[in-house]
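seq:
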Amino acid sequence: MREVRGLDEIERLAGLEVGASEWLTITQEMVDRFADTTFDHQWIHCDVERARRESPYGGPVAHGFLTLSLIPGFRSQILTLTGVSRVINYGVNRVRFPNAVPVGARVRGVQTVRKVERTAAAAARVVSGFVIEIEGQTKPACVAETVTLVFA
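struct:
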């Protein structure tokens, strides 16, 4: 994990890959809990037997938005920001899900800080690229550009 102190150090990360999170196994319980929370019980995620019979993936897969929602947790494993008062998720500029994540697969996040823009003397907008990799696969599960506001 990389520790960064204050806005000046954050600015120096622009253009750099800052690291990768630990691998995380996607379980059926995680998928089912996400489905319950989002009211998205599509069979390809939640009906294990039907997914084994009918899915092109040979079993259930994680929701794309579940994969996307792992980014804050992965980010906290990759980068620790100290010397700031708060960090706020501001949005996502672009998201794609190029590959399905089968239940049982392991995923991790890789973060690149693309741009850091001071919006005030004590605030910055940080644009990061995140790639959610699937262990053993070349095509990622998710590619996203996130925007975070950081305040001194």
